[in-house]
Amino acid sequence: MSTKIDETSYFAPQVSKSDRKIAVQYRRMFAFGGLAKHLPQGPVLDVGCGAGPGLRYIRSRGATAIGVDPSIYALREAAKLIDVDLVQMDAAPRFPFADQTFGMVLANEVIEHVPDGVEFLLECARVLQPGGMVFLTTPNLWDIRRVLAPLVGKVWSGDTDPTHINLYTPWRLRNDLKAAGFKQPRIKTGFKPIRWLPPHRNPLAIPYPPLIGNGMVATGVR
C-alpha cells in the first residue's frame, strides 16, 4: 500500500470488532462470491490478511493458507487468532514467493490500495498454479450512494479511507483481470445484509445491480 498510515489507529478498530461480527461479515462476503466451492487442494495466499479473519475462514474449510500483510501490528494480531505462516510484505509489488506456488490468491479489500491494479493482478497470476483462481473484493465505484451521499450531508463509505487510491467500476475491474491474463473474469456486485435479520442470523448476502451494489466480488482463472 502506497499511502502512509499510522498502523495502530488504522488497524485497531478492525481488531476490536467482536469475533462474531467479523465472522458474519466474512461469511457473508465469501458465501456471496462462492469462495468455499472454489477452495483448492493447494495452499491459499491471503494478500493483505490483516488481523486474520480471512485466514480463519479458509482454515475452517480445511484448506491451507499463508497470510501476507505490510503491517506488523496486524500480523501480530493474526498470530493470536490462528496458527498459520505469516509474512510481512512491504509496499514492493513483487510477492516473496516462487512462481506457481498457490492454488488461490485471496485479496480482500486490497486492490483499491495499490496504485497499479494490472501490475498487482499480474503478480497474483505469477504465483498461481495453472488453473488457479484469484478471488478479490473491492468497493464499487458505481454505487449510486456515492452520488447521493453528499445530498444528505454524508460521505460514501468508499471515500472515507484515505488509502483508497484506486477505486474500480465493475467494467474496469473486468478489463484489468483480462489485461493480466485471467480467463473467465466474473464480477458480482452486492453483499449487503438482509437488514431485518439480526447479525448473528444473517450470514447471507444478496446481489444488487451495479448501480446500487456497494461492493464487488471478482474472480478470474489463471
Automatic annotation (TrEMBL):
Extent of the signal sequence: none
Q: Name one GO biological process term.
A: methylation
* Alphabetic keyword roster: Methyltransferase, Transferase
Query: What CDD domains has UniProt attached to this entry?
Result: AdoMet_MTases
Q: Does the keyword Phosphoprotein apply?
A: no
Q: GO molecular-function annotation terms?
A: methyltransferase activity
Entry-linked InterPro entries:
SAM-dependent_MTases_sf
Pfam families per the record? Methyltransf_23
Q: What is this protein called?
A: Methyltransferase type 11
